[in-house]
């Protein structure tokens, strides 16, 4: 698995989704989903692009299970968090019913970040 390419490729998909949502909000004048838009751009595009470029520039980071764990934890956590946030902010699902999934999704992203940090420290970069 090419960790760098995975982060960059999926990050670019989030960029397109974020731009689409931003364009929709701008055209409709309804900015209810602004927090979703911001999270898509930050967790989806920005962080994944930074991680993808870092893995490309420091290829030694990709040779560990920490890199794979980081990739998958971030993918699952970000997707669940963003879909949940969209469902809640759009009113499709009540906050009380979807709210309990957020700590798990946020935990996955946080664990992925810990894997990233541990991988960096391990590699002596």
Name a few traits of the molecule.
mainly alpha, 125 residues
Shape: globular
Low-confidence spans: pLDDT under 50, at least 5 residues?
Answer: none
Span from first to last CA? 22 Å
How many separate structural domains?
1
Major beta sheet summary = none
How would you state the average pLDDT, rounded? Answer: 95
**Can you count the beta strands?**
0
Estimated structural class: mainly alpha
Please give the count of helices. 5
- Portion of residues in beta strands equals under 5%
Commentary on this structure:
With 125 residues, this protein is mostly helical. It has one domain (3-123). The chain has five helices and no strands. Helix 2 (34-57) packs antiparallel against helix 3 and helix 3 runs antiparallel to helix 5. The longest helix has 26 residues, at 3-28. The chain is globular, with a radius of gyration of 16 Å. The two termini are 22 Å apart.
Summarize the entry for a quick read.
The protein has helices at 3-28, 34-57, 65-89, 95-98, 102-123. The protein is mainly alpha-helical and 125 residues long.
Any chance you could write out the topology, listing elements then pairs?
Elements: H1 3-28, H2 34-57, H3 65-89, H4 95-98, H5 102-123
Helix pairs in contact: 1-2, 2-3, 3-5
């Amino acid at each position: 698995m090419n960790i760098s390419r995975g982060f960059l490729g999926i990050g670019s998909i989030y960029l397109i989704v974020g731009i689409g949502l931003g364009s929709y909000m701008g055209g409709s004048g309804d900015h209810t989903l602004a927090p979703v838009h911001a999270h898509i751009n930050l967790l989806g595009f920005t962080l994944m692009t930074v991680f993808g470029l870092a893995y490309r520039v420091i290829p030694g980071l990709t040779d560990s299970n920490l890199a794979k764990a980081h990739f998958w934890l971030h993918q699952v956590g970000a997707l669940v968090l963003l879909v949940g946030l969209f469902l809640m902010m759009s009113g499709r699902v009540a906050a009380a019913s979807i709210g309990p999934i957020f700590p798990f999704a946020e935990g996955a992203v946080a664990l992925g970040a810990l894997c990233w940090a541990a991988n960096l420290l391990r590699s002596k970069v």
